[in-house]
Structure of FAD-dependent oxidoreductase:
Amino acid sequence: MQTSSLWQSGSRAVVGSGEPPREADFVVVGAGLLGAMCAYWLARAGSSVVVVERHAVAWGATGRNSGLVIPTTAEAYDQAVLRLGAPTAMAIRQLAAEGAGLLGQVVEEEHLTAEYRPGVFLQLATGEEDAASCLADIEATRRHGFEAAWLDRDQLQPRIGTRLSDTIPGAMMLPGATVNSVALVDGVAAAAQRHGAIICTGVAVEAIRAIGGGKVSVETSHGNITARIVVAAVNAWLSELFPLLGKVIRPVQGQLIATQPMPAMFDCGMAAQVTAHGEYWQQMPDGTILLGGCRSVGAPVTDATAQVPQPEVHQALQGILPSLFPDLTEIGVQRGWAGAMAFTPDWIPIVDEIDESLWAVGGFSGHGMPFGASIGKLLAAHLTGGSPLANLTHLRLDRPTLPDPEAEQLR
């Protein structure tokens, strides 16, 4: 078990400066997918942009995930419709769908080498009750104009390069993609640099405060930066900058393993609910399988321990593939790691101006890959040209689905 992911341990495309300039139109705090995408679109619009990151590009949740791009809500879509109402659920789903498409567009336009593979995503049903849940999800999805289909066992087995467990009756099929998340964010950050953005790594933000005249001061370990607008995109660590956000954003540990290279079996992203919160994986082009989940097996974590893998979760992850595919009895593991995701009480991200010229973004609840692309572009368009926030209005702090009444104090 390690404190960095398989992708983070490889060669990196972006090496940032440690000395930020003293002024910029925009300061983006955090260099994960959302921060990189926001900086990319701001720079493309001709703005001066500085990205400050206290560690490295893609150091946090983006660089530690499984690289699945699933254009749907963080919870089952039919449940999101029941809880949020159809208009809100549809808006969130559309935002995810647009983000998935935009991700592929940026990869193509900027010629990024990120092992990006568009295709489908398969949610395996682990029993008849689970199959009924998948069918309900499919029905709600298709009723609202999104793509989904059911594959029965006979249709599913030819898509899998190993024998299915007898307990699997079929799978829900959605659009999807897989990607090397670190290579992706490195590539987006490098593209942002080509458009004029300045990336500063190893720079810690100590405070952010309004100083009058429509200006914000970002106080860092390497001096202060004066900006017109600041976008804080540090996800699970937002409460360090804005303590009241700790009431609506909760850090949750995600843990993964990387197997030794195995014969080709899985040509798309997949998931199955073996434990309470579900498991998910992709097989990389070299045969390595990245698999995450089993977080219900471990102990709750805090920010201070989120990057430290738990042995019991590591052990549980090694049993997932054999439980679903009985011929996979030998699973060699080359690396295990953990990272902090950020969850909100209603499983919807937060995008809002929490003070004049100060925006906070986070709380992707484990589904940040499609949202990072679309939110980054929409927010940049709003901040540079006053474009309407469109679907982002559903992500405000004063939305009715955030149950904490003190959230009103944040506006």
In short: The radius of gyration is 21 Å. The chain has eleven helices and 17 strands. Residues 407-411 have pLDDT under 50 and may be disordered. Residues 349 and 363 are 5 Å apart (CA to CA).
